[in-house]
Amino acid sequence: MKSFAAGARRLPPHHITIRVPWHDDGWTGHVCSRPLDNTSCLILPRIGGGRRDDVEVRCAGQRLDELDQSDLPPCMAERVSFMAPFELTRTMTHPYKDIFPETHGHIAPTRFAQPAYSAACVPFRWMLRGKIEGNVREGEIGIAERLKIGWIPDREPDIRNRQGDEVDTAWAQESENQLALLDTFFGAVRPEESLCFFYAKRTPLSEQSRRVIIGVGRVLSVGESTEYENDVENPPLRCALWERNVGHSVRPGFEDGFLFPYQEALALAEREGLDPEEFVAFAPDECFDAYSYGSEHLSHDGAVASLVTCAAALHRIRGRIEGPWDEALAWVDRQLNRLWKARGAFPGLGSALSAFGYEWGFQHGSLLAYEIELLRERQGDADPWAVVDSVMDDPSKLGGPVADLLKEGLRTGWKRLAHERRALLKLLARCSVSEEQALRIYDTTARAEAGIEAGDAELLDNPYVLFEADRHTANPIAFGSVDRGMFPDEGVREQFPMTGPSLVEDPADARRVRALVVDLLEEAARSGHTLLPRNWVIQRARERALQPPCPLGENILDASEESFGSLVVVSATRTGEPAYQVDRLTECRRIIRREVLGRVKGKRHSADLYWRGLVDEGIAEPLPLDPEERELEERARCEKAAALEQLFGSRLCTLIGPAGTGKTTLLRMLCSIPAVADKGLLLLAPTGKARVRLEEQTEMRGSGQTLAEFLIRRQRYDGETGAYYPNPKAPRSDEYRTVIVDECSMLTEEQLAALIDSLRNVERLVLVGDPRQLPPIGAGRPFVDIVRELAPGNIDADFPRSAPGYAELMIPRRQQGDARADVLLASHFSGRPLDPGADAVLDEGAEGLDERLRLVQWNHPQELQERLVTELVQALDLAGPDDELGFEESLGGARYGDIPWAFFWNRFGDNPGAADSADDWQMLSPVRAGLVGVDALNRLVQARFRGKVRELAERQGWGRKVPRPIGPQTLLYGDKVINVINQRRRDVWPRPDGEAYLANGDIGIVVGQYKGRNFKGLPRKLEVEFAGQLGPKYGFYASEFGDEGRNPLELAYCLTVHKTQGSEFDVTFVVLTNPCWLLSRELLYTALTRHQDRLIILHQGPLAEYRRFANDEHSEIARRMTNLFEDPLPRETIVDAQQRFLEEGLVHRTERGELVRSKSELVIADKLYARGIDYAYEQPLTLSSGRTKYPDFTIVDDALGVTFYWEHLGMLDDPGYRARWYAKRTEYLKCGISPHENGGGAEGTLIETRDEPGGGLDAAMIGSVIDSVILG
User: Fold this and answer.
1) The domain 603-801: what is its CATH number?
2) pTM to 2 decimals?
């Protein structure tokens, strides 16, 4: 930059982060080669709202400089061409020119040139008035005051819309104000000195919301400002373009910077079935704010942390993907050597000074630190603390406005500061902490409010307590921030040595080891583990990108365990290997174990009730006349009666079973018993949708709450962090005697422990769910572990499946019959022994098996989209693919005359409310990205069926009757949406009976605003009626949606499987893609059990190829390490050439090493193996009829020329199971496979064995069969 604008401030050097959208061909100045496949870029509002798919498809792969200006894609404004080797020009039109013509109409389109290998950067945070001016009511000062930038609010124009109403714009408008801020920002980005970090908000490599580093280079140039041209002389308002070109050093050869080979990683992951996330360099979590707002400053410490992360990713890539990665690593090493020195010893000086000055209202610590840095440079790298002392003694040494900020009280306080308090400030300054973090630690009142019990002395004795004690706050101090403070560059350590108790010299210092173990355990908890075996901790520590490395091994950990205290609890695996668990999860384990084991042993509730009579009365229908249906219904009522007795009598009882078996019907029967209903009854569920369903099916509307709603009032849920926690100091609820919790498979250990801790005087705790569904997002799988603990040992052979504290329903009776193809297909992925009829569902010839299941194969993504529209038209009974009005009626819309769009009303009078139809149908996909992902399918549906309403929303002037499209997904009037944040809302009418609270996962329909005759002005907000709260309309404004933060609403025509857990829909359309690294047995089971009436599966490739996901090695539940009731036993398994560890107690592993489905199959396999007989497990067998079967075991005797097919049978006393086995047996007979008792058949010999009637297997009988039939 040649010069600074008036009012700009010169800052010390910073690095710059530059946000770019995902691109499929290297950001080289071309349109994506497959634009429709790229849905990751749509998260950015300018692309999501402005991409014209037809234009981009037409221009796919073309150079941007060869396109007409009218064809330029919106991603060009988002720096998509930063690797273009040629100059690009755009014509920039001020976004307010047409919206506010009175103030901006004179601003002319302006040419903007972007040189080769550059990015047009915009620091959006620095242009937001809320960030510039701060918030006086909240005591927050803005950028302008914090840095004493010459921002003059009176220069900003009074902006009015076309109707003459004053508009409060969120952005800086006037050129001098803009340039003062922009020159300050870009002036800190120094060519040849600063680095530039390119990052993306969303990529197809990961489903996480973390920022992904795309590449890194050096800044070579920073462009000058450009002012908008004007149509008039002496314009009343001048405006500057916010964009500044930042030239960088990254070139295709990667000699001076590099890009990660993410496109190649995706291709490799697809070929080999890998998780592409292993190749990703995520931006450090502690630098999240720096990787936000388009472009932002990144400190030296943040740049070091980012480069260390990049180096770790490059090491993982090297050897897997071809490229100059050794050269890239050498470049990273050179930059790290330079940046460690630039970072210095005290990167948190400004934050520490602000924390000190808080009592005097001093919030300019960063500015003071900048000025001190300039003084140090002039004085030859003097000790910064000596400079602080000097300027506190004589502020005139600073000069300018900064000197005036050092008031006498502040200076006196500094001089009188106690030694220990000063030492704490110096410790904080050694770490790159924010002002908020520094204040939370330094100020004793703020420390206590944050629940941090450590005193100054403890913090000084162990600096890593800064991380350990702060890790549960909303903006925690990261382990890496403290670690880099303790281990800066060697030269820095020598220049500014740490002394006293805070000194950490040894990389294996016990304080560092403990903190690292805590960090690894917290990271593991986010992945589902509640503890880690010691060797896992060692491996993860060695993979962690630390400088210097922390050389963990058994000896170091042995020596360090004494210092763990209560923070890390040492437990063990079942082999005796030490394992580690963080303190809070140990406490959760203690609470849950004590409650479960104590209640199961406790005194049971007794009642003189006829349980079968209560079931008959609750069902209120006679037994069917058909003999088979009658026998099945009789069994269903029998198991319900046994379950009801357990639910009533047990102090704690689990109620499990797949969808359609009548769990909530049984709960209604329980709730109707006077001894339960009259003594205080609480219904809870983890999501709003599950709460509503529980209320409806128990006929207790208004009696339920979400877990978050219940616990936030009892001080055991933090709405800001989303954390659930026990709190023994908070009051407990004692007004409920029976507590029923539905969808318990979604509960983490923290959630369940917090709930148990919040209750008192509960007589009956009922935990309901399906343990075969996806495990919770978070730590543990408590429901699965509780069910395992309470289930009898021979449960698979029992009927009814009932025991103290345990009740299981097995017989689906929704729409009658357990022979439904959809039920059989879902059972395939249940982890239980296979039903004999499951083969038929997976067979390619099973298309017409059942009207409730439709299978649609597709091979290419474009084909999927065409077939999906066809299936929607058929299932929703539309007139055709252009029937927008019929589609809107399927969402609860109402026709009115010959108007070509539907009207959406909330519930009032006899109108049921549009959201009453929100659950009528739902599309599901396992992934977000790509043409088969949630984002693309939502976009497809909206584009196909909401065209007329979009035209209505984009009308200009008073003809617009609905809100403009809002947010990155351009939400429209009548759209189906999902709320994604637990939140209280103020803008709601009519007021709900209880609290105006929305739970994450609540689904609704946009029912407003709509401009009718009496509506004044123009619609400006979305009004949403939610299915769980019919009637109230919740208002959402465009300002709540943007580039940063989490948008409160998303389109919900299609949802990820995880987001539908806890919900049920009449009809579901399940999209399955293969290969897909996210697929697991539990994900498929969950997806296939979300419907009530019809299931339409659109599967890529043959459906039979998904069969492998039914095996234990694809179990997500079994991958989690927990110790709720017993120590874990992880065993290594190779899956698709990848190493996985599975909990041995959750799988059946044979002596030969493979995984089978049941204990009985385990016995058979081991007996065969012990006799030296080679066998194949569930090997496909194509019969002469063309149908495919999967016998349990196939044994080929080449010498005799005989093939044995062994089928082991379980529930032959179940009439449905028995009938399906006989049908399968008949197929074997017809195709020449006969029982060994009959001498076998021409095509093979059938061996049939079965469990004993009372449960279990006669192992001696199995040995006898092998000896007499196979070996005899």
Assistant:
1) 3.40.50.300
2) 0.92
